[in-house]
Amino acid sequence: MAKKKKECPHCGKEFSEYKNPIPTVDIIIEIENQGIVLIKRKNYPHGWALPGGFVDYGESIEQAAAREAREETSLKLENLKQFRVYSDPRRDPRQHTISVVFIARARGTPHPDDDAEDLGIFTSKSLPRPIVFDHEKILYDYFTYRNS
Amino acid sequence: MAKKKKECPHCGKEFSEYKNPIPTVDIIIEIENQGIVLIKRKNYPHGWALPGGFVDYGESIEQAAAREAREETSLKLENLKQFRVYSDPRRDPRQHTISVVFIARARGTPHPDDDAEDLGIFTSKSLPRPIVFDHEKILYDYFTYRNS
Fold this sequence. Notes:
The structure is a homodimer. Chain A is α+β, with helices and mostly antiparallel strands. Chain A has helices at about 60-75, 135-145; strands spanning about 5, 15-20, 20-30, 35-40, 50, 50-55, 80-85, 95-105, 115-120.
């Protein structure tokens, strides 16, 4: 396993420890007859993305998906289902993350919150630009799956 | 996000940092007309388990699955496909892991290596005991999926 260097905040000396990819979740939220929800990110990398975020220690991926959707869009998810996992080490410019992507439904009007500066509901023909991370690929896979 | 306490190996003082679940892979390897491969673990928790292990930083989950299968069973995987993700915080008694489970095929005779003390090929009717982690549940889901 790969090791990473850490620096002690007290004595300043370096030591190494195991380094693991970071687990995340992303959620494709379908609003009936309208499309799917994307958020405009407040933080780097700037652009549009699926709602999502880091999985907390002690939390299942389903709990993380429900929490992140609520925090970023104010929506309550229904019919949450695993779609696919994306793990290319280059998918996030900050660090190696592994994202479990879910598909879910929601009713009501989403409101941006937390890491979301803005949000919108889009179809495959109306996607905004730029879309960050590998979320354009995820959306391509999703629309291909929905049309098959 | 949850934080964990670390102790500096040089000065012995504690500091806290973000704690994340650890990503792993497990592989259901199908040997044609025979069954699926389970390994008998050398290390705690002792018992039978699917071949698998930790995902290295900088490695995709598909690469990790191929590497772990090779290291533990000497088999080369074909037709590797994502099955499902298991993330219950209690699934591993040592720490919170999130496992992406794959289904794959292999030809030839598996040989135990690395963390495997022994291995065997089993069907739903001939499973060994005890099966550790949540792998009995994973196998139940797999056989249900195969029979549906």
